[in-house]
Design brief:
147 residues; alpha+beta; Yope Regulator, Chain: A; 6-stranded antiparallel sheet; 3 helices; 37% helix
């Protein structure tokens, strides 16, 4: 089954004059796009997955929940035009962006377009997560009225 991904990556690297992507023991390919975007590509059954790791949420639970709520609202707004999914890595607080593609019917042109779209979304999320925390609304405060 992983043959579809192997074929697509071979065509992709040949078209763009790149060296073959590094592969680990589990069959995951590691690619560096646009010079600094690390993307993992792997096949599971009849699906190809594109995966990019962002960064971990803060250790402060209140701050982490606030940021996660902000990111999920932003992600929900982007779902109409983007096919990527923002999630938390199981067992950690690391934000992960991923996208699924159909392995069997995917052409090299569709793969390239999906990879480009994914890289753009990954860059957007990296920049969003890197924004200073002060860009979020301040926590609500108690109003005290004196007569």
């Amino acid at each position: 089954m992983a043959g579809e991904l192997d074929t697509l990556l071979a065509q992709f690297t040949e078209r763009h004059g790149l060296t073959k992507a590094q592969i680990d023991d589990s069959g995951r390919y590691f690619m560096l796009l646009d010079g600094d975007l690390e993307v993992t590509v792997f096949q599971g059954g009849d699906r190809i997955y594109l995966e990019g790791h962002l960064e971990s949420l803060p250790a402060d639970q209140r701050k982490a929940e606030e940021l996660l709520g902000h990111y999920l609202r932003l992600h929900l707004a982007r779902l109409r035009s983007k096919q990527e999914v923002l999630s938390l890595e199981p067992g950690s607080d690391e934000l992960v962006l991923f996208r699924q593609l159909p392995a069997r019917s995917l052409t090299i042109t569709e793969f390239e377009q999906a990879l480009e779209d994914f890289a753009n979304s990954l860059e957007f999320w990296i920049n969003t997560v890197a924004e200073p925390a002060h860009t979020l609304a301040p926590p609500p405060s108690i109003q005290m009225l004196f007569p």
